[in-house]
Design a protein that fits this description.
Helix content is 83%, strand content 0%. By secondary structure, it is an all-alpha fold. The radius of gyration is 21 Å and the shape is elongated.
Length: 199
Amino acid sequence: MERMREYFDTQARLREQALAASRLTVRASARAISAIHRGDPEAADGFIAEAREGLNTLSKMVMEAPEIADSGIVLSAQQEYGEAEIVRAAIMKEKLPEVDEIGIPYKPYLAALADAAGELRRYILDKIRANQIERAESTLKLMERIFEFLMEFDYADAILPGMKRRQDMVRQVLERTRGDLTIALRQQRLERALEKRGG
């Protein structure tokens, strides 16, 4: 009985520590994305470093207790951190980072990619409002790459949970964004044509 109680006491302690590290990672990742949208790369880098620290703490706990590796506590932190890294690279470097560059497992990486599409839509709409249509177009191409990449993973939920739902979500986001950008491009062309006539 004592051995069993010691085991479960350790599990409870690890779970509380993992939960705190996960919350730190998720919170810092969300703040990083907000900073990226504000155009504050220094703040974004700081928050991502904070999130990475929380994730490293979780990784050490997983080594101590491998059974928590697939828990929601760990996966959600990996996913949120991955999303922040993907959004930062897509917006600041105009590229999509590979899974090895981020250092998270495949499942949360794919989930992070799907969620990043929503953040890229927000960025594109901001660029449309700022009349930066070319930048919006290049970001849309990254969204298209994300969708094409995700569509390569046609697995059952038992293997890759939630992937079909995420694929549908990204498809809808992409179609809406493409429509918004098409309207903006037509408006831009019309304005330029009117300017030429006026000139």
